[in-house]
């Protein structure tokens, strides 16, 4: 009984002292310095710039001026066209005839059993 009472008192003391349970902070400042308070309306594209307090703010979206959007479209269509050409060549070469093994022919009874087993699931 006395043990329970001492545990209850200990728990009550812990609940009444929440400051001891809080983590201790280092007292440092924010990792990014605070900007100037807003005194005028923001520009329309303000959310597209990331101003981290350095001398040159960065764009949030990647800026890649080496290739225009039309060149990028040409590169993408050339790549997709190459793969379409490759698929056409494979289909025309008929790889089923060039298989080094004979396809397995199952008796009709086995095919029927397999078909009914698959359709039940």
* Element pattern in H and E: HHEEHH
Biggest sheet, spatial arrangement of strands: 1-2
On the 0 to 100 scale, the average pLDDT is 78
**Radius of gyration over alpha carbons?**
36 Å
Number of separate strands: 2
Low-confidence stretches: none
Strand content: under 5%
Gross morphology is flat
Total helical elements: 4
Helix content: 40-55%
Mind describing the biggest β-sheet?
Answer: 2 strands, antiparallel
* Termini gap: 63 Å
Q: Structural class given helices, strands, pairing?
A: mainly alpha
Keywords: Membrane, Transmembrane, Transmembrane helix
Transmembrane segments: 72-93
Describe it.
The chain has 121 residues and is mainly alpha-helical. The protein has a domain of 52 residues. A two-stranded antiparallel ribbon has the order 1-2. 0% of the residues are buried. InterPro entries: Put_Complex_I_su8. Keywords: Membrane, Transmembrane, Transmembrane helix.
